Amino acid sequence: MQREMDVAKRAKVIEWLKTEVVDHVSRLFKALWEGSTSRVTDSLASLIVSSYILGRRLGVSYRDLDDSILEKLKKHQQEGHQLEDWYQDISTLEEHMRKR
User: Fold this and answer.
1) Cα(77)–Cα(93) distance, integer angstroms
2) By CB neighbour count within 10 A (0-12 exposed, 13-18 middle, 19+ buried), where does 57 fall?
3) Full-prediction pTM beyond 0.70?
């Protein structure tokens, strides 16, 4: 019985975190519409935090998520991603993450 309750609780938490991610995206879009830099920053931070925690609840460690992000950034650089070509956003983010 305890194990069934634990599985149900885990499923409920994952569903709740999924709604949090959607809510943060919605808040981000509203903040963009309003032009509020502080609300955009807060919404982006909340979205990132919720994404990391959702990943953890799904069995992805924070380190594995960071490694996957770095891998994706490297791939974008190698493929000549447009944001890298225009603004060097990809390499700047990769450098930021590696310095943490």
Assistant:
1) 11
2) middle
3) yes
